Amino acid sequence: xxxxxxxxxxxxxxxxxxxxxxxxxxxxxxxxxxxxxxxxxxxxxxxxxxxxxxxxxxxxxxxxxxxxxxxxxxxxxxxxxxxxxxxxxxxxxxxxxxxxxxxxxxxxxxxxxxxxxxxxxxxxxxxxxxxxxxxxxxxxxxxxxxxxxxxxxxxxxxxxxxxxxxxxxxxxxxxxxxxxxxxxxxxxxxxxxxxxxxxxxxxxxxxxxxxxxxxxxxxxxxxxxxxxxxxxxxxxxxxxxxxxxxxxxxxxxxxxxxxxxxxxxxxxxxxxxxxxxxxxxxxxxxxxxxxxxxxxxxxxxxxxxxxxxxxxxxxxxxxxxxxxxxxxxxxxxxxxxxxxxxxxxxxxxxxxxxxxxxxxxxxxxxxxxxxxxxxxxxxxxxxxxxxxxxxxxxxxxxx
Length: 399
Fold this sequence. Notes:
It comes from Nonomuraea guangzhouensis. The protein is of the alpha+beta class. The protein is 49% helix and 8% strand. It has a single domain, classed as CATH 1.10.630.10. The chain is globular, with a radius of gyration of 21 Å. The N and C termini lie far apart (48 Å). Mean pLDDT is 91; it is low at 74-79.
């Protein structure tokens, strides 16, 4: 039997029942994607980690026999020409990560913390002024990461509405027609070209200015096109994922308010609470596709060359063989080797940024709004549909 994927699920914070069944009985499963193409779904921790950590497996789904993810998919986020511009593997990919990764070190993130906290406080003050109930996702979850990534790229935060739309067209697998996606991407591309031209004329203290200053490939830097696509990729990756995670994390902590009370009593648990929210997230979106350029054995099954594999990190993060009491949210869980940021050479470049933003949001919320609570029953929270990145439609709160 071939399952439809993504697996339908109405519960905003709970995993589909099929995950546990698949891990137990069919960890290497055949699935049918929205495009109608076949792929292989992995749900066990060891298998997902093996595939994600293997540098031979490409995230580029532009091979002629790779599965298309959606109907409009002559590309989309995972296989577009844009994705092909940033080197995907080998020494070139490591070089790109070293150049860009300098901006995402834990040390740099610590330096950004006070500014992040100021932004979070201002957004919360504005939310309180507008009165309750409020949508925490729209008031805090969405704007905070956009302001932060705009700062890092030297991009005017006033343009954030446009980024949100462009980013949605890149990340939504079902919502837009191809013509609309193409037009949005052309606008985004033009915007970034103009922005980089301005940075060349007047460099600032930001990531893009530094990448330009590093020179071209002959100087050990990147091509102009690579700098441009890096800027676009970071704007998209830097806001949509974290914006959705802020909403989901707060929802998880308020769904059983004893969790929130525990953090109020002991804020030293914020760090482990963030990690556990990342592990426990049952609504993380599509998962990571990988293309197998050669025959490979995974989980005892031989997968032929040309297979497209979907790694469900969220299902793997609920694997009892990797996490004791995996279906319990444990605010003190440590160590916590979850796969929310992937694994290996392609693990998420911005994970230190995401972790810092999530920690800062919790610190500031606990301090400023200790009485925070959900304004609707958990059962009424709705999932966002179609996004490559999972999220809640809104998070109504009161205080």
